[in-house]
Amino acid sequence: MIGQHTVKSQRPRSVHDTKALQEQAESAKFMAQTGESGAEEWSQWSSCSVTCGQGSQVRTRTCVSPYGTHCSGPLRESRVCNNTAPCPVHGVWEEWSPWSLCSFTCGRGHRTRTRMCAPPQHGGRACDGPETQTKLCNIALCPVDGQWQEWSSWSDCSVTCANGTQQRTRQCSAAAHGGSECRGHWAESRECHNPDCTANGQWNPWGPWSGCSKSCDGGWQRRARVCQGAAVTGQQCDGTGEEVRKCSDQRCPAPYEICPEDYAVSMVWRRTPSGELAFNRCPPNATGTTSRRCSLDHRGMAFWEQPSYARCITNEFRYLQQSVQGHLAKGQRMLAGDGMSQVTKNLLDLTQRRNFYAGDLLSSVEILRNVTETFKRASYEPSSDDVQNFFQIISNLLEEETRRNGMMRKR
């Protein structure tokens, strides 16, 4: 077009093109001197865009155009720069290996797994984190065999003269988790000899029953008595000097019928057979005891039920209960009205927190009963705020009871 120059950025393709570009450069210098359009010299190449790996550099020039015409050729050029420094490569964790088998087939063991780190290169960072992980595992309780305890002392001789017998016994500790019972005899006897005498024998009183040989599944216990005074020429005592009877007839629970030791709600619950209760103290912010039952599910497996806090009363409810007793005594002297209003306000505040034990519900009912009794004795007519607070407390208690019943049904 007239009055305009076409900007071409192609590289010269031949000697003629190169020569043409040189002529254009000379022409640009001439135009710069004569006031015609032309381009300045190229700037220095910029620094490489990266400090490692492949980057780029640029350089620019300015078009001097006093009459509004355009310069021919590009105003910006770029080229590749390849920094000789290799870029750092950080270490990378590979996938975790599968968990190993438990280190023990019974009792408490552990499992482990590992992972490998692809090593860093060119000054990169090493992998951060553990190379090995460990977790506890408990496959089954280890069997515990019954163990014989020490023999008892030998009993007195069964007679006070001539030949008799002595006995001694030992007890077996209960086997657990499928272990075997003690093997061997639980009682031994031996002959004993006393000097001759001429009197007839007389039985001494029976001794106490020995401990049972087993704690469950049926055991034996014995007691003995001594024939006193029988001589070679005298008559022996009639009857026997030993009695044996069965004991511990109840069935031993199987391992799966015993709830294992458990740590729940910041308390340790000891091993407990199914059908029995375990007891603990209430949490530090309350007084009383909490219980937890070991029950059997439909498959006959023991499991822990949720702890019961029916006997737990928080310190705030306990203090409020004690203050009501003091106002109850004042009620006989017409002095309880203002105090009981304050008690009602405090009880409303406590029940609105929705954070109390089952024992607190029973305590609240007792406090409301005493408040009513105190108002009667004091012949004091509650204010409208007292009445409103009173019924709001009842509403809070009913709402909490409904919520707890709903939770029980879901279980």
Automatic annotation (TrEMBL):
InterPro entries: AGRL2-4_GAIN_subdom_A (IPR032471), Angio_Inhib/Adhesion_GPCR (IPR051867), GPCR_2_brain_angio_inhib (IPR008077), GPCR_2_extracell_dom_sf (IPR036445), GPCR_2_extracellular_dom (IPR001879), TSP1_rpt (IPR000884), TSP1_rpt_sf (IPR036383). GO terms for biological process: negative regulation of angiogenesis. Keywords: Cell membrane, Disulfide bond, G-protein coupled receptor, Glycoprotein, Membrane, Phosphoprotein, Receptor, Repeat, Secreted, Signal, Transducer, Transmembrane, Transmembrane helix. It is found in: Cell membrane; Secreted. One of its GO terms (molecular function) is G protein-coupled receptor activity. It is a multi-pass membrane protein. Residues 246-316 form the G-protein coupled receptors family 2 profile domain. GO terms for cellular component: extracellular region; plasma membrane. PANTHER family: ADHESION G PROTEIN-COUPLED RECEPTOR B2, ISTHMIN-2. This is Adhesion G protein-coupled receptor B3. It comes from Takifugu flavidus.
